[in-house]
Amino acid sequence: MSPPTVLLITAETAAGKRLQAALEQAAIDATVETTEPECVDTTLLRTAVDCLVVPVTCEGMAGGHLAEAATGLYPTLPVIMYGSEADRGEHIQAIADDDLGSPELAAAVGEALENSETMAARPASRPETILATMFERNSEHLYVKDTDRQYLLLNDSSYAPPELLGRRDEDGLPAGATYLDAARGDDLQVINDETDILDIHEFSPSMGKHLRTSKVPWYDETDELAGLIGITQDITDQKERERLLRQQNERLRKVALLAAHELRNELQVSTGHLSQIEADDEHIGAVEESIDRLSSIVDKVVSLASSDSPEFEPEQQWLSTVAWDVWSSLSLEAASLEVTSDRRVLADPESMRLFLEILLSNAVEHGGPDVAIRVGATSSGFFVADDGPGVDVSPPERVFEAGYASEKQNSGFGLYIANRIAKEHGWSLSVDDSEAGGARFTVTDVERPD
């Protein structure tokens, strides 16, 4: 029978030899293995471990957090923390000595080995090696959290640092408060309601990343809820391609609407002049029929250019995610955006982005380069408000008419399209004065995900 294994978390291979010598000096039959702190989770999956020895700090990572991650995976694994500032916690024995050759530390390891009955001590199973390989080699952000939302397994991705092991997102993830609040809400929904959250689109302004996240409940060997399993993918490049395609489609849509608008005006003039001709001539009848056909074509162009596909599949998404997504594509320096409150929205992703892009662009066009814009949730929907000059037209709803433009350089179809998108989703879009004296667009009757 092979001797038990003691796993030492250290960045120095020589440290393992010092602990091995101390155990031999104390006549304790055990083999010391070492692992770097960022690899402790996958090492536990691959290696049979009877006792874990953790320093107070190692390579900038707190030993207490590493111990919490380890015991989250294997609750009965004996853990000994050594160091002058070691503090006792659940499943953790503290030795207030920085010396790996300390007789006190060796004695504590020996005692832990005598009483150790942990699943971590059995040889790694084939599924565990598969899981370890996924976390070691996958470039996507894979993770497992306990019911306290602390990371137990975490791969080294560009999105989340390994220092998060044993900690929560808000303890070290380099993301803004809005993103962290949304992530926390998703975690709690999965844990408290035991429901899946799939393909949630997120945007973190501080990281400059567009992300797609899925999270599902994790049940342990007794079928009890133990936490959640998640994957977060960096889809920034994909979102940039989609943004460019949306801009191209929007330009084509506005060109079509503008052309149709001008043609309709000319056709109305032609019809007016034609009605003044009293002669009864077959050529006049042919001209009238031609004008009617052209009017029908213009109406069809307007209908096709101003409506999205009615076959869209609504998806749940965070208001803040879409707002920051659109804002990041506008490349504004002096203007500012504040998301005052957040909520989930059921909407077609592309239509929702186009909708907010029109409202935010409209605020910048009319409010000036240093306009301050606020986006927030309401009990029945959300709003977009600015501190610009406001809406100087009566009634205000005229801004939603096709072709209405307060400035000559505008096509006059942006807000018309936004209103069409709102109607297709069953929303109501209205405009009024904001608290700052600018314009406030309010969306109501917005469906909230279950």
What does this 3D model show about the protein?
With 450 residues, this protein is α/β, with parallel strands linked by helices. The protein has four domains: 5-121, Response regulator (Rossmann fold, 3-Layer(aba) Sandwich); 138-234, Beta-Lactamase; 238-305; 315-444, 2-Layer Sandwich (Heat Shock Protein 90). Helix content is 40%, strand content 22%. It contains eleven helices and 19 strands. The chain has helices at 13-25, 40-46, 63-73, 103-114, 126-137, 177-193, 236-275, 282-305, 319-330, 349-367, 414-424, and strands at residues 5-9, 31-35, 51-55, 57-58, 61-62, 79-82, 92-95, 141-146, 151-154, 197-204, 209-219, 225-234, 315-318, 336-339, 344-347, 372-377, 382-386, 428-433, 439-444. The strands form five sheets. The protein has a five-stranded parallel sheet with strand order 2-1-3-6-7, with helices on both faces. A hairpin with a 4-residue loop joins strand 8 and strand 9 (151-154). The longest helix has 40 residues, at 236-275.
Short description:
With 450 residues, the chain is of the alpha/beta class. It has helices at 13-25, 40-46, 63-73, 103-114, 126-137, 177-193, 236-275, 282-305, 319-330, 349-367, 414-424; strands at 5-9, 31-35, 51-55, 57-58, 61-62, 79-82, 92-95, 141-146, 151-154, 197-204, 209-219, 225-234, 315-318, 336-339, 344-347, 372-377, 382-386, 428-433, 439-444. Helix 9 (319-330) crosses helix 10 (349-367).
